[in-house]
Amino acid sequence: MTIAPPKPRMARAKQMTLPDTRLFLEALARAHPNPKSDLVYTDAFSLLVAVVMSAQTTDVAVNKVTPALFAAAPTPEAMVALGAERIGQLIKTIGLWQGKARNVAALAAQLIEKHNGVVPADRESLEALPGVGRKTANVVLNVIFGEAAMAVDTHIFRLGNRTGIAPGKNVREVEDKLVKRIPPEMLRDAHHWLILHGRYVCKARTPECWRCDAAPWCRFPQKSPPPAAKPLARG
Asked: Which residues contact 98 (CB under 8 A, 6 or more apart)?
């Protein structure tokens, strides 16, 4: 699964210093002391499938369809038996569901054929699976296998440029800068800190700078002011 950067041209802030990068991330860590994916999963296979289905779809939408899907097919073998058509019927409320159904059925078959039904722990094997690109592989490597991998989605791409933590022209440039600039002991959790911050605070349209714990170190020059208080109704 490949997530392209946002279409509109994005202004890149001046890059943070390394000391400010640490302080910025420490602020996000305080805001999210127990970071985890918003996707609901129980094992490596269910996470892999959920991330594949999350392309151009919200985690909330994916979480609405996965309970029924995983109840019917909790294993690669059961998913193959279910088949792409039935998978599609169970996930048809999410975007691009036909292609995702085919990919989920095909990746389950490939897991059985090449990996004895087990999700592989290396990037090359993961990216060889249908529907799996670098971002999906990074999520699985980070969450399931404990690697300090940085999965750059649209939220992290936006934050990398807007805040100055890792300005870059494309997703891979931002990823490489984050891996290089984030302290190694913080890198695994930083994946979640940045996604959650981008999803709930540093939003695409209007970043909620007034309630951002990391604002003192952010290089975004046009911080959003608090929304104006509504006037009290006269009785």
From this structure: 88
Tell me the backbone φ, ψ of residue 166, rounded to 5 degrees. Answer: -160, 75
Radius of gyration of the chain (CA): 19
Classify 183 as helix, strand or coil.
coil
Report all structural domains of the chain as residue ranges with CATH numbers, in order of start. Answer: 18-35+149-217 (1.10.1670.10), 44-143 (1.10.340.30)
- pLDDT at 56 (0 to 100): 87
**pTM as predicted:** 0.85
Residues 161/15, Cβ–Cβ less than 8 Å: no
Alpha helices in the chain (DSSP H): 18-31, 44-53, 59-72, 76-91, 97-115, 123-127, 134-143, 154-163, 171-181, 184-200
pLDDT for residue 131: 95
DSSP 3-state assignment of 74? coil
Identity (one letter) of the amino acid at 103? N
Q: How confident is the chain (235 residues) per 10-residue block, as mean pLDDT? A: 46 86 97 90 97 92 96 98 97 95 98 97 96 95 94 94 96 96 94 94 93 95 81 58
Rounded CA gap, 96 and 115, in Å?
A: 27
Q: Which residues are catalytic?
A: 135, 153
